[in-house]
Design brief:
heterodimer, A: alpha/beta, four-stranded parallel sheet, 19 strands, B: alpha+beta, nine-stranded mixed sheet, two-stranded antiparallel sheet
């Protein structure tokens, strides 16, 4: 196999991404009864940066009797060479054909990688639909952050892991080992697996639709999302793979906590990762030391949804600073909320540019989305950053939020002018560079805005044009996320099983790597929807509050009643306090306790 | 203490670029916890000096890097430590403390490359013809352009028999990349020579108009 691969490697870009050989690779020759392959539907450089994948890969390899390998989506030049050489998709660890594994698990980070799942199955010579795969094919399963609503791709998989893989994937593979020993069929195994918390077996569900593409009924048992009860004692690998080429996040990543206390009403991750669970600073410092020693990385980054809200952040940073000096490494601080950007953090981080996400221009709209920061917070933080010597400010906003008006857009422009004024008053020059980025609001499932509509393409372009015209200011750059790609993402975030045909059609006519602007083809997507007789607007429309939503069979913990209450508060521009102040009763405690 | 490390770069690692290999070496040194010295610049970096870049796909049994370590280091353990903490296809062959100044990039002017196989009479004749000719022009692609270059003066030596081809090619300011050389020859021969079977086996410096193995200059 390796000889065949070698023949083509010198004809492709970045060949090192296909040959593994990383330091800290687990023993692939240990005795095993189950061979698992984790597939990531994007490139090696992106997949190797994924913390969840690192956890699952090492966790499975430490399990007795299981060997876990990896495969990533090859770039198009490699895929072409593989097809020419009749070489099927292989794992990068031992160059084994994907079809020869017992279980192939896709970790799906977001909706725009759906066509890449089919791309990888195609390269592996595996039929797309679960119903077309007999006992000769491996079990094809999925998991990952995007499985909040797995319905658009449910038909492709034998099983889908809902929630945190540390729990359900462990039990799933244990059960598989037992069933394999007992000679059970795939179908017999899946019937047993559906009793594991967080395991969804799509073939056991029946969905009925109305004539206007709404869901009439879902027949099947409720799937409860799996969550890790105690994050501090949960598995976290410290002997991780060290890639031989530079990857997107080429550093030690310390996951501080899961969940978010702030409850921004557009934010899916905030609710999906609840209950809020912290790792203790002692555990984190221990992990940091072990990770630096085991990898040789020269940078540590702190990861969470809002690092500034970590309860012992100051002590943690103080302890990490000792390690940083001792080991000659750097410390990077991402994801700071404006109201948590305090002097000590500003002093202790590097003086490049700072990123803030006010998300909306006016206080009214920030109240609607429950982004609990004030105009004063913005001004104070910017002043502090400028005084500390930062050279650039990056600001993130959303366009098309519920109740947004032109005044809210104008307020973004006004905020930029105000920042320039603050900077000038401190530095007496215009050297501060400001970068403004906007994304289009996507009404994602598992948020208070899940019933909202997404604005039309014409409105998206109109709003972007307003900012293009009005942000022509010296040292200010405006970036915007594509309207078309946001619309497709919204459709698949909120879609039902009828969309699997669209994904298949889109792949067959040339879609793939849709999150890469150079590969995204809106015209092909439109063609795929048209050929499948499906209206895009059926999925971007406002959903009725009483309507059955495609993901309603999943119990994510946070109740629908809570989301509805939050939605109604949004329309009154009323805010909800952070969970750090008091429990807001979202309902997630039925899955586990919040560490607050 | 200045230490020279000779290492082999093989199999999966021969597809890793020079800059990524340097990064892998630096990480190996950190993992091995060797007391390597750092520069005193604002963005401080490890004091590390490496050989010339190896083209992608070419293997090597004669790569070198030089580091400076605090004198407390126990040289007897360094080879074992480095091998314990290196990626699997980077193997340290030996380590040596030196006192003279060595700069592999500036001093090395030629490298020996070996290719093992079963070579036909035609192939042997072709290589012997190059050896006996006064000129030899190759063509290769650089930045999507076809470049034609006279390279006979960049070929120091050629030895070929039925099982081995050994060539010594210039490197550095006057450079003949082994992949370009063998790929061009592949266009002329029926028999195809595999680029990933080329192994760099020796590096030379020029002393008194003669090529001398760089290892003999390390004091």
């Amino acid at each position: 196999m390796l000889d065949k691969i070698r023949d083509i490697l010198l004809k492709v870009e970045k060949p090192a991404q296909y040959v593994g050989g990383e330091f800290n690779m687990p023993n692939m020759d240990k005795p095993c009864d189950t061979r698992f392959c984790i597939c990531f539907p994007d490139t090696y450089e992106i997949g190797m940066s994924n913390v969840g994948l690192k956890i699952l890969y090492h966790m499975l390899n430490e399990q007795e009797g299981i060997v876990c390998e990896r495969a990533y989506a090859p770039l198009y030049d490699m895929a072409q060479q593989m097809r020419n050489a009749n070489l099927p998709l292989f794992s990068v660890d031992t160059f084994k054909n994907i079809v020869d594994f017992d279980i192939v698990g896709f970790s799906i980070p977001f909706e725009l990688t759906y066509t890449n799942v089919l791309y990888m199955l195609d390269l592996a010579h595996i039929p797309f639909y679960a119903k077309d795969r007999g006992e000769d094919f491996p079990l094809i399963i999925a998991g990952g952050a995007c499985m909040i609503n797995p319905e658009p791709i449910a038909d492709f998989f034998d099983a889908i892991m809902i929630g945190e893989g540390e729990c359900n994937l462990y039990e799933f593979t244990k059960l598989y080992q037992q069933c394999k020993k007992q000679g059970k069929t795939k179908s017999q195994f899946l019937d047993l697996a559906q009793d594991i918390t967080g395991v969804y077996i799509p073939k056991n569900y029946k969905i009925e639709y109305t004539n206007d593409n709404k869901i009439k009924a879902i027949e099947g048992k409720t799937v409860k999302r799996a969550v890790v009860k105690n994050l501090d004692t949960a598995y976290y690998p410290t002997k991780i793979l060290v890639p031989n080429i530079e990857i997107v996040h080429d550093r030690v990543v310390l996951e501080l906590y899961r969940g978010c206390a702030n409850g921004c009403r557009f934010c899916q991750a905030c609710f999906y990762y609840r209950p809020i669970r912290f790792r203790s600073k002692e555990t984190l410092v221990k992990y940091a030391k072990e990770l630096i020693e085991n990898t040789g990385y020269n940078e540590i980054s702190l990861s969470s949804l809002s690092t500034g809200d970590y309860k012992d952040l100051e002590q943690l940073i103080a302890q990490l600073q000792v390690l940083v000096k001792e080991k000659n490494v750097n410390l990077a601080l991402p994801s700071l909320r404006l109201d948590t950007f305090k002097g000590e953090f500003a002093e202790n981080s590097r003086k490049g540019s700072l990123t803030f996400a006010p998300e909306a221009g006016t206080q009214r709209l920030r109240n609607v989305i429950n982004k609990n920061i004030t105009e004063q917070n913005v001004e104070d933080s910017i002043k502090m950053a400028v005084e500390q010597g930062y050279n650039g400010i990056k600001l993130y906003f959303m366009l098309g939020l519920p109740t947004e008006t032109e005044a809210d857009l104008q307020a973004i422009v006004d905020m930029v002018h105000k920042i320039k004024k603050i900077s000038y008053s401190v530095r007496h020059n215009n050297s501060l560079s400001i970068s403004v980025s906007t994304a289009i609001f996507i009404p994602k499932p598992l948020t208070p805005f899940e019933w909202e509509k997404q604005i039309s393409m014409a409105e998206m372009l109109e709003k972007q044009n307003f900012l293009i015209q009005n942000l022509r200011i010296k040292n200010v750059r405006y970036h915007w996320h594509g309207a078309e790609v946001s619309q497709i993402e919204a459709v698949f975030a909120r879609g039902n099983r009828r969309l699997s045909r669209v994904i298949e059609r889109a792949y067959n006519i040339g879609c793939g790597f849709d999150s890469w602007s150079e590969h995204f083809r809106y015209d092909k997507w439109q063609q795929a929807f048209a050929e499948c007789n499906i209206n895009i607007e059926d999925y971007t429309r406002a959903f009725d509050e009483t309507e059955i939503l495609p993901w309603d069979f999943i119990d994510h913990g946070v109740t629908k009643g809570y989301f509805l209450c939050e939605k109604h508060k949004a329309y009154e521009a009323k805010t909800t306090d952070s969970c750090l102040q008091h429990c807001n009763g979202c309902g997630v405690t039925c899955l586990g306790k919040c560490d607050l | 203490m200045k230490i020279v490390v000779k290492y082999a770069k093989k199999d999966s690692l021969c597809f890793v670029s020079h800059i990524d290999t340097m990064r892998a070496i630096m990480r190996t040194l950190v993992r091995a916890n060797l007391p390597v010295t750092y520069s005193s610049a604002v963005n401080h970096h490890m004091n590390l000096n490496c050989s010339h870049p190896l083209p992608l796909g070419v293997q090597s049994e004669a790569e070198y890097f030089v580091i400076e370590c605090e004198d407390t280091v126990n040289l007897a353990n360094v080879k074992e430590l480095l091998n314990q903490f290196s990626p699997k296809d980077l193997r340290v062959i030996w380590v040596k403390a030196i006192t003279n100044k060595v700069n592999f990039c500036a001093d090395v002017v030629a490298c020996e490359y070996t290719l093992k196989g079963n070579f036909s009479k035609n192939t042997q004749d072709y290589f012997n013809n190059i050896k006996n000719s006064a000129t030899f022009t190759i063509e290769f692609i650089k930045r999507e352009k076809i470049i034609s270059q006279e390279v006979r003066n960049l070929i120091y030596n050629i030895n070929i028999d039925a099982n081995e081809i050994e060539v010594v090619l210039a490197i550095g300011r006057d450079n003949l990349r082994p992949d370009n050389f063998f790929e061009f020859i592949n266009t002329k021969l029926e028999e195809k020579l595999q680029i990933f079977n080329i192994v760099k086996t020796r590096q030379y410096v020029m002393q008194n108009n003669a090529l001398v193995d760089v290892e003999s200059t390390l004091l």
